[in-house]
Amino acid sequence: MKKLILLTLLLSTAYHCFAQSKKNTVKYTAIKPVGVIKNLSDSALLDVVQRQTFRYFWDFAHPVSGMALERSNEAFDYGGEVVTTGGTGFGIMAMIVAVDRKWIPREQAVDRMLHMVKFLSKADAYHGVFPHWLNGATGKIIPFGRKDDGGDLVETSFLFQGLLTAKQYYNGTSQKEEELRNRIGWLWSEIEWDWYTHERDNLYWHWSPNNGWAMNFPIRGFNECLITYVLAASAERYPVDAARIYNRGWAQSDFFKNGKSFYGIKLPLGFDYGGPLFFSHYSFLGLNPQGLKDQYADYWEQNVNHTRINYAYCVDNPKKFKGYGENCWGLTASDNHEGYNAHSPTNDLGVITPTAALSAFPYTPKESMKALRHFYYGLGDKIWGEYGFVDAFNESKNWYAKSYLAIDQGPIVVMIENHRSGLLWNLFMRAPEIQGGLKKLGFESPAIKSN
């Protein structure tokens, strides 16, 4: 009981100090939610959806750290203080969109960013790598599993995809923006990528001071983790033999190359039917797949075809789930009527997840717009809320989520913006760190400078 009282006092004090800090420096502009608005043009509808979805990372951020809360509801017995490392990276990129579209003032975004990176500089990390979850008030690790109580290299990669993009965007000469860039650079330089090879030909997802390499999870095969290898290749202070671990590790598994066709559409890489759609989103929030090629694939073809297969499957609807069709599609990982699952054509439970189709805007703009209009006008009374669209729904079960998840909301804002302006792609691909990493791995891209 004494420990509980002490923890309550600490959290209360931390929250009070953060609130006072905001009061004494800058008052953050709140974004008011809106209901369903009739007769919007496509462009206006995209504005409304991006803006309201961004509220998750601005108005709903953790009150102490400013980081992104894992989800809007408490679930799975892990409490309400959980902030997500990767979801925060997505939120940082969404914040850049909000500044660029003038939904929030640049100075306020810089203040929020500075607060977050200062928090991260004192938070638990393991050889420079952050855990999957942190306590947003204390910066201490919240284990993701019994043995997953250390560094998470993939979640850290999603975080730094956002931080390196921010380092490019906040390029002003003010003391705050210079400090922000420096602090991001310090955090970036402390990641020991070479440690996470486990002295082998692979990057490994986890390491724990309590359990060592017990998780034994090599990062390989085509999935959401391409960004991890690109960032590892970009490192300077703790470098890896980039080409060796990329070719002998990442590209060597029985679920890397595919080459088969599904619904008459060729899939270069990955699982049959492509797997959940977040494979074509998470690494590509900053990494621009347009014209991006290596010896294994054209990544624009990969992502477009993966999405088209997912769409074709939903239109075909072989399991005859209610609601599926050309206006209602998109299978990916999300909450569902049973808990949580990674939905895909080979793991179809009748659950449509809005982020799947909406984060696919760059790849299937017409099909994604049809889905967006149906979600907003056809189902808006059931799935539109204060942070955009709820996480998922299953019309066969008459189930509609009440929850929002950071890792699903963030890609909606970012990938719609990449479809509209290419903003995040342009920023990330210009980063000198990334230019060097892509060259080391043998990638081709119009964004890679020759010198």
UniProtKB/TrEMBL annotation:
Coiled coil: none annotated. Keywords: Signal. Residues 1-19 form the signal peptide. The keyword Signal applies. Residues 216-431 form the Glycoamylase-like domain. This is Glucoamylase family protein.
